[in-house]
Amino acid sequence: MPLKVYQSLWATEQRHPGTPERPVAERFDAVKAAGFDGMAIDLGAMDIEAARETVPEFARTGLGGLLTAFPRSIEELRPALHLAKEIGAPFVIVIGQVMPLSVADMVPVIEAWLRVGREEGVPLQFETHRNCITNDMFATLLLLDAIPEMRLAADLSHYVVDREMMLPISADYQAQVGRLLECSDSFQGRVANRCQVQLPLHFPQHQPWVAVFRDWWRRGFTSWQARHGTDADCLFLCELGPRDYAITDAQGEELSDRAEEALQLRQWALEDWDAAAARPVAEPN
Which Gene3D superfamilies does the entry mention (predicted)? Predict the structure, then answer.
């Protein structure tokens, strides 16, 4: 059961005022040269027509494909699923922009997207993300109770901010995170604290939060390994976004090198994957 680590095309953007972005082909080459297994396309960062222009890059570089969709209606998901098949994505991550206020009204929306996924033959994972139908951790837990087949893409940085979790993480939150991890079929790499969704990884004051997230990744990997066969691949996506996700100084310069941090995340993920293989599913602290 190998762990495959992907980079995000969005995460390779610099968004530096006055400086053009590197060509997409050059960024694909850099991700390939760095040893990543695949590249993820984010339809929140580019429209679907621009995303279609990346299709030849997957064949040229041999990178695996992955797609994150932001559908604003039920049927708007369908073109994203068609594109996902073109780039060989094993599933599509959904950050749904249909956002009813009540869980009872959310349920038919999720079920409708799942129906579209079945019709197109593309599995769906709903990301634990802000500003979407899974914005709130508590509502997402209720959705999982109502729709047992719902699967998640775990980016827990959003829920640390969503619930303003404090250290040490409470036993209730640990149990709730454990429930999310049991329903997660892929994982994303970013470290947050209760006020900031993306922390520089090397700052000493952030190390307690690095330890929290690595523990969650190990727990998630342990659960994933117990639920899947030996021929299945688990995906870990490095998702270190450009400014304004990345914290900047008074001159607008980022405080850390996200390309180097992505390599650090990959190393941690591979270590934690190996550690999970020998680790029983942990009880909440």
Answer: Divalent-metal-dependent TIM barrel enzymes
- pLDDT tens digits for range 236-271: 999 999 999 999 999 999 999 999 999 999 999 999
For residue 24, report the phi and psi dihedrals to the nearest 5 degrees. -60, -45
Which tens digit of pLDDT belongs to each residue from 188-242? 999 999 999 999 999 999 999 999 999 999 999 999 999 997 788 999 999 999 9
Contact 267, 236 (CB under 8 A): no
Structure tokens at 244: 């304004």
210 C-beta neighbours (distance < 10 Å), count:
16
Exposure string of 97-129, with b = 16+ CB inside 10 Å and e = fewer, is ebeeeebeebbebbeebbebbeebebbbbbbbb
Of 7, 5, 3, 2, nearest in space to 239 by CA: 7
Which DSSP category does 54 fall into? Answer: T
Alpha helix (H) residue ranges in 40-170: 48-52, 55-61, 77-86, 103-120, 137-146, 157-162
pLDDT bin (cut points 50, 70, 90) of residue 285 is: very low
* Residue 208: half-sphere exposure toward Cβ, Cα within 13 Å: 8
d(CA 181, CA 170): 16
Calculate Rg over the CA atoms of the chain.
Answer: 18
Instruction: Check residue 35 and give its pLDDT.
Output: 97
Neighbouring C-alpha atoms within 13 Å toward the C-beta of 238 = 30
* The token pair that represents 62 in the structure block: 């041999």
Sorted by where each starts, the structural domains of the chain and their CATH numbers stand as 3-277 (3.20.20.150)
The pLDDT tens digits for 16-74 are 888 999 999 999 999 999 999 999 999 999 999 999 999 999 999 999 999 999 999 99
